[in-house]
């Protein structure tokens, strides 16, 4: 069963969660590390569970796991064995599922909303490189090599029981093709594909977003297509490009409005001038069916979205 379509058959919008890293930093974590939030899986997993719980309480219908930068290669570089790496990768799913189940066990939390799902983050090859490549896509490796990189983590996440895979911040269509090819090895698994974008028409490596939507539209295991980790001002245009070229649900979860410099690993500029939930309402009206937040967004932003989403008529 396609878990995304299953929810959308009843609810007009799936509310995603927001940034994990920002919240972990607010709880005192130091993420200046090549493993980023995956480092906290090793050190303070209870804080990850608390962030998931905060987003469920804010109204999120989906938790994205802390496996974005959790890879066998990345953990091996820290001296962890393959078994230890697998345990941590799979822990990212179990932590999110435990937070969800504990939240859902309280009857007052079930009003006018679906039982939340767990989306296992499959970050791009560039996230493992930790050099900003997920905003360029110029990896210099083949589709076959990308498939070999993604296979073991995808299998670990699927075996851990994730409801869906979140293939996110993908900077090039070649990487999406590699992952779709792998999905055929797991015929009961669905994944969403969200690309990082450089402007209102193109993903990060310059490929038209329309071409990405058209290609993914042909593949049944692609449950949704969209954009994440991208400046707010490009989202409406990108939704229009995607909508013209796919019948699949459109997913968007951009950054807060600040600009990320991958070289210095710093954020500059100001956040969105209008309330985040107000921008999200426009994206919904433009055709997005799954909406949340990426870098620098917070539970308060997700609460704004859920505030109006719960007033929408269900089918």
Automatic annotation (TrEMBL):
Matching Pfam families: S-methyl_trans
Keywords: Metal-binding, Methyltransferase, Transferase, Zinc
UniProt binding sites for Zn(2+): 229, 294-295
Alphabetized InterPro entries for the sequence: BHMT-like, HCY_dom, HCY_dom_sf, Hcy_S-methyltransferase
Cofactor(s) the protein requires to work: Zn(2+)
Source organism superkingdom: Bacteria
Gene3D superfamilies: Homocysteine-binding-like domain (3.20.20.330)
All residue ranges annotated as the Hcy-binding domain in the record: 2-309
PROSITE patterns: HCY
UniProt-listed PANTHER family: HOMOCYSTEINE S-METHYLTRANSFERASE-LIKE ISOFORM 1 (PTHR46015:SF1), ZGC:172121 (PTHR46015)
Name of the featured protein: Homocysteine S-methyltransferase
Organism of this sequence: Bacillus mojavensis
Gene behind this protein: ybgG
